[in-house]
């Protein structure tokens, strides 16, 4: 028998020994904490958000949260683990009557992302973000060469992300960015300035690498064929069942075309 660093020294791995019982207890306890520690409209955990829409869930454990009275979360949002959402430069400030950070309905924010709203940040509905995205309305200034950069008063500019955008893993959205509708931001891109609707941007700094025209379509043309649409007779229940299956070729669509 070959051993490695993951092997059980007492040979009890997978045999229901004390180690297995402890492992299952830890896993069950963690799942319980994830359920009970999530923040929702019904279970705010003491976070006084301006609004949390129906069906929105902030996964446990959360990242840093402050300035909640100036944060408005839409309905049916999914906020991943360790996501930081802040309004204002520090806690316990009076930021006035209007929300500072507004997140629209149906937004998904991936694990470990940060949205830092020292001034207005608006994320439109149905924006999907990968993990470790960084969005900020504040940038350090370095006007005075004699002073440490971190001690100089920062510059702030509003950020706006239009509806329907996809923002890839590790992308950075800088102060003053105005991103249009249905824009794809490539992984690792650093975005500043204005991005038009229906564009693909990539690079650091990000530049437009593909655009869409009503007459000509995508330019340059897409290199991959369009995905097959979901058959009209597939039910939501069948789609959920697909998510629980491994890729075994099982037909759960009732004759609607096999594996989607």
From TrEMBL:
It holds the Pfam family Hexapep. One of its GO terms (cellular component) is cytosol. Its EC number is 2.3.1.-. The keyword Transferase applies. Residues 1-10 have a biased composition (Polar residues). One of its GO terms (molecular function) is O-acyltransferase activity. Keywords: Acyltransferase, Repeat, Transferase. Residues 1-20 are annotated as: Disordered. InterPro entries: Hexapep, Hexapep_transf_CS, Hexapeptide_acetyltransf, Trimer_LpxA-like_sf. It is an enzyme of class 2 (transferase). Belongs to the transferase hexapeptide repeat family. This is Acyltransferase. It comes from Streptomyces tabacisoli.
């Amino acid at each position: 028998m070959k051993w490695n660093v993951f092997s059980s020294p007492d040979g009890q791995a997978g045999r229901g020994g004390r180690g297995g019982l402890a492992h299952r207890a830890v896993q069950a306890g963690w799942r319980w904490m994830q359920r009970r520690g999530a923040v929702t409209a019904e279970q705010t955990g003491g976070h006084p958000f301006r609004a949390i829409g129906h069906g929105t869930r902030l996964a446990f454990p959360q990242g840093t949260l402050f300035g909640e009275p100036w944060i408005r979360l839409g309905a049916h949002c999914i906020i991943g683990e360790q996501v930081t959402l802040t309004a204002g430069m520090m806690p316990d400030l009076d930021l006035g009557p209007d929300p500072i950070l507004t997140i629209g309905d149906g937004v998904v924010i991936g694990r470990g992302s940060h949205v830092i709203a020292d001034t207005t940040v608006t994320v439109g509905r149905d924006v999907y973000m990968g993990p470790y995205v960084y969005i900020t309305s504040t940038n350090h200034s370095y006007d005075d060469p004699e002073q440490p950069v971190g001690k100089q008063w920062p510059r702030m500019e509003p950020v706006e992300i239009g509806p329907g955008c996809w923002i890839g893993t590790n992308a950075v959205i800088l102060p003053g960015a105005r991103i249009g509708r249905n824009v794809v931001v490539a992984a690792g891109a650093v975005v500043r300035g204005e991005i038009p609707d229906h564009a693909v941007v990539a690079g650091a700094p990000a530049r437009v690498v593909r655009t869409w025209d009503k007459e000509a379509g995508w330019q340059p043309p897409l290199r991959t064929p369009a995905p097959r649409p979901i058959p009209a007779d597939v039910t939501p229940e069948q789609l959920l069942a697909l998510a629980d299956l491994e890729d075994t070729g099982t037909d759960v669509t009732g004759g609607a075309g096999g594996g989607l």
